[in-house]
Amino acid sequence: MSEHQIKVTTRDGHELSFGCSDDCDVVSAAEQVEIKLPSLCRDGGCGACVGHCDSGQYVLGQFNNTVLSNEAVAKGEVLLCRTYPKQDLHISAPYDYAHIRFGKQNMRQATIIHLEKIAERTVRLKLQLIEDEAGLAVEFEPGQCMELEIPGTDIRRAYSLANTGNWHGELEFLIRLQPEGKFSDYLNQQAQPGQILNVYGPNGAFGLQADSFSPAIFIAGGTGLAPFLSILRRMAEWGEDRAIHLLFGVNQENELFCTEELEKLQQQLPSLTVTLCVWKPAEAWSNGFRGTPADALQQSLSDKPDGYDLYLCGPPLMISAARQVAISQGIDEQKIYSEKFG
Ligand code: FES
Questions:
Q1: Whether residue 49 has its Cβ less than 6 Å from ligand 1
Q2: Spatial separation of the C-alpha atoms in residues 31 and 23, rounded to whole Å
Q3: Cα(79) to centroid of ligand 1, in Å?
Q4: ω into residue 202 within 30 of 0, thus cis?
Q5: 239-266 pLDDT, tens per residue?
Q6: Does pTM surpass 0.70?
Q7: Ligand 1, residues 25, 31, 43: which to mutate, most atoms within 8 A of Cβ?
Q8: Which of 22-26, 48-52, 132-136, 159-163 has the weakest average pLDDT?
Q9: Is 8 in the pocket of ligand 1 (CB under 6 A)?
């Protein structure tokens, strides 16, 4: 077993390095020295840990091809949770230094204060942090997520935060109930206000590119709306009025949620346009676009393709469909940012 040196350069030019043996993946090796690189599933399924290998030999473990295409692999893109070095590696990371956490995994405890079904198969979960030596404040970048642990087990699931950082320790999540999902079963059968959970994070590098002032299109599939709500709420708090078009897609209209919050945000952010997309609506439904967000994107880009940043969050199929439309309509691939979940 050989030890190799991994050098990571972040988008804003910071460098960090650590050792990694050839039987260990890069994300786990970093974690052993208390460097938490952005990652979610740790299993090659979400794309949160993507990077570009500029030099050195490596082997990639199995991963989902919808997350990283063969063309991307041929260009040197890697999923760091599936990258096993065979030599010293130099990796360029597509996120800033601020998205990397240092020190022990940050575990805190929080009480359930609100649990509500807000649409077919979707719940809103609010937690209140219990005060500890870190105080009550909760700091995170809009777009990041936290891992929630089912009480009495070591089973954790990562969910995007829908609110913004705050001094009073409130965390808000929008969670899709998955058939036979372990955390979904917990929410359905055991969770109730007053219960205490362990929470880990924040983590993840999805979020608005701070160095771009281009107009943006946000595409949210189902609970993929959560990180966009966080970003828009932060923009409203800070009075940032950049042109944003949000396309929020679901399969049927009874799966829509947070429409009142979106209306309120439109009042606070005059440059925000919201299009609700329902793939298979009832005949009488007339509150938005009838079709998928990818179809709506095609329509909205056909007369103004240039200069957009595109942000995608939702199921892998929706993301690849929207991505294909965007590229075929001339959006620069480098300006497409995405986070997938199953
Ligand atoms: S954390 Fe590597 S693909 Fe999900």
A1: yes
A2: 15
A3: 6
A4: yes
A5: 988 899 999 999 999 999 999 999 999 9
A6: yes
A7: 43
A8: 132-136
A9: no
